[in-house]
Amino acid sequence: MAWTGIFNLLILPVLLAGAHGYFTNWIAIKLLLKPVHPINILGFKLQGLLPRRQSELAERISEAIAERFLTHEDILAFIRQVDPVAAMRGLLVEKWEEKLNEVLESMPFVKMFVTSEKLEGIRDKIADAFSSEAERFTDHLVQSLEGKIDLKATLRRNILAFDVSQLNAIIEQIGYREFREIAWIGGGLGILIGILQALVNWFSLG
Predict the structure, then answer these.
(1) 197: containing domain
(2) Which end of the chain has less neighbouring CB within 10 Å, N or C?
(3) Domain total for the chain?
């Protein structure tokens, strides 16, 4: 048998099947993400699975997160873990210093009658008064939030607002190696099929 006949019967089927398996898998992977916007090809609308199903995915993902991973009870628990006294005192001291400097700059004569030690004493008394009520305020805040946190709706809205192109880029960056492995697996399976086809061709000659 001439070399051309051997190539056509034994080698070419292996090459074609391997290339077919590789590129078919690679195209299938790409079609999960792209094109982002639908393309009309001979009356057939072509669009990536993720962009096409963004609304449904947003619904399912937000539902799963809100019901299983991060519930509104978890958020309320996080709020309760904050030390309200320390937080309130720190905020008051910070704002006191900020506003006091503004007052002293606008009315410098105040420094003549009120010493810095006196001002600090006033500040500490106000901070103590507000801090003593901080824990009760936190409880009131938590109670007012209960039943008003719609985590699912918030997540769904944010997912829908997220740019699909950016999401595709993130997925491609994370899964690039796995995508190539899937494509090579397709190529390997194609080569196996090509070998079987070559064997069939070879034995059919006999």
Answers:
(1) 3-205
(2) C
(3) 1
pLDDT, tens only, 108-164 = 666 666 666 776 777 777 777 766 666 666 666 666 766 677 778 888 888 888 888
Place of tokens 């090579």: 184
What's the pLDDT band for 77 if we cut at 50, 70, 90? Answer: confident
Helical ranges in 133-150 per DSSP H: 134-145
- Burial (CB < 10 A; 0-12, 13-18, 19+), residue 117, is exposed
Q: Which residues of 133-161 are buried (b: 16+ CB within 10 A; e: fewer)?
A: ebeeebeeeeeeeeeeeebbeebbeebee
The Cα 7–Cα 120 span in angstroms is 94
pLDDT, mean of residues 6-31? 88
**39 membership: H or E segment, kind and range:** strand 39-41
